[in-house]
Amino acid sequence: MSTNRHIDAICAVVTVLTVLLAILFMNGAALGIEPITDEDAGTGQFTANDLDGAWDASDAARIDLTDGTITGNGAYIVDGDVHIVYAGKYVLTGTLAGGSVIVEADGDDKIWLLLDGADIRCEDSAALLVEQAEKVFLTLADGTENVLSSGPAYGQDAVSASIDGAVYSKDDLTINGSGSLTVAGEYQHGIVCNDDLVIAGGTVAVTAAQDGLHANDSTRIANADLTITAGDDGVTVSNDENTGYFYMESGSITIPSCYEGVEAVNVTIDGGTIDITSTDDGINANGTGSVRPIVTVNGGDVRIVNTQGMDADGMDSNGNIYINGGRVFVSMNGTGTNNAIDYGSENGGVCQVNGGTLVACGGSGMVESLDTASAQGFVETAASGAAGTSLTLADENGNMFLGETIPNAFTYVMLSAPGMTSGSAYTLSVGGTETQVTANDTSGASGGFGGMGGMFGGGMGGMFGGRGAFPGQNEEPASDQMPETSQAAPAADENEAEMPENGGAPATPDAQAAPQSDTQPQQLLQEPDDQPSMAFDPGDQAVGAFDRPNDGSAELPEQPEAFNGWDGSMMHGREQVMQQMQQDEAPVTGSQAAISSGSLILLGISALVLLAGILVAAKFKH
Length: 622
Hints:
The protein is mainly β. Helix content is 13%, strand content 34%.
């Protein structure tokens, strides 16, 4: 019995020690070791690296575009183009008048580009072209002005490769920092990203012959001030899977001229300021198949004005619209079927006002009513006013809820504000003429038929380029799914695209796989054979061309001395300093380098303790 008790005690002690050491190994708390953290992973729409516009550039390679010299490793210049081929950090200064900056790294490489007073123009292709990388961070140095522009006609090579923006990225692209950037896309679009486009800082002005921002998977905005002038859409997000979404957290977007303002399957606005002047839909959520498009406003200030549209809508969704907070102001030309609010009522869609402030004035030709199940009271009625008419709404005691001046003539109004309740009486004044109205009374609307914009994917333009309504979406959301507070988003039905929390694409009801995001690098590491290395051949014209080292300790071949004189055709030397090759987020620091050895020590000790315990226990047992 005594021996058995010893065995039990020894096993308990060994177990406790092993668990403690395993915990230390997992979090690196021992020996002053801190765990490696992925700064490009996050639980929200933006990663730590997305929001870091002031990263340390002391160890970056430096590229002087004016005289064509490079100090540092990882880039070369040939035929007037700057080629960046290694993961790492690069600072670009000066003027490049006839070439592109081309990123052609490995598929798991992250690239940081700091524009520090850079002016890059390419007449026949993109000024910045990302051929391959895991992710590129384009940072605008504080206090600097930077320009990326392209000519009105692209060359055959660019056209064949479907390059159609002044900035064109085949992989994830983040723009941040505190400087300014002017993007001029004279050919087609301004900024194009085939994956996720994040703009998380800086003052960015985009002019484009067609779309200002054009992304496939998502466009996400925070902390940035954007001005977009576009011949077509201000912002477009679309892909074949119907999972493209637009998300705005903070900052501002001003679109003074466009056809449609913001277009995506899923549009979510949590904050910031959006000011759109369009000739068609201001905000348009559309899609095909089983995904129900959604516009959700949880906060911020949204202003949409359309003075000349024909069969246009201010806020349009082929599915649902939820206004849960913030302020939404829409003024449409009140003639014809210019609806201030249009949604997919013909397919079971709803428009709910659950919080915030809504002022929507437009035409009465094909009005759709707000949902009477809205958590907040609203008023909608036929009421006419000329351009510049003042509009107010007060309760029976004279307490003012709303007071606005409407820029366009209108024939129908929709109003809601915090504190309004269903069934309550209010006084509506239009240009001084007062009318008594009752909240949530929709008897004067034609609801249920749906505007032409909702039917055809966004006004008459949608008839030719938009996506049509989706079939089979006739179920009404249950009233018990309504949020308890005005700020909570209502429960989505089974066909609605949901906003993700990890920065990926919205989940779809048919369980389509979301595109791989930068928050899941483990898949890249598990299948290295599927990530071919970018084999580049600088050719004989590139002085100092080199092969990619196999590891961080490899030595580069000797390079010729640098000399002055930039003729736009070759790289005139550079200092070859082999830096630690970047394998994850940023160059490995001293504390991070110690993690591997310290963790191995802890793991080894854990194994030895466990082994010793097993041997002792076995001895006692015999």
